[in-house]
Amino acid sequence: MLLANSPENLKWTEHKPVMKGYEDLEMRVSYSITQSNGKIVNQQASCFYKYEQDDIGAETFNMPTAAYSTYPGRMIFEAKEVEKIQLANMINEAMANQGRKAIIKIKEKVEMISTEK
Question: What ranges do the domains of the chain cover?
Answer without folding.
Answer: 1-82, 83-117
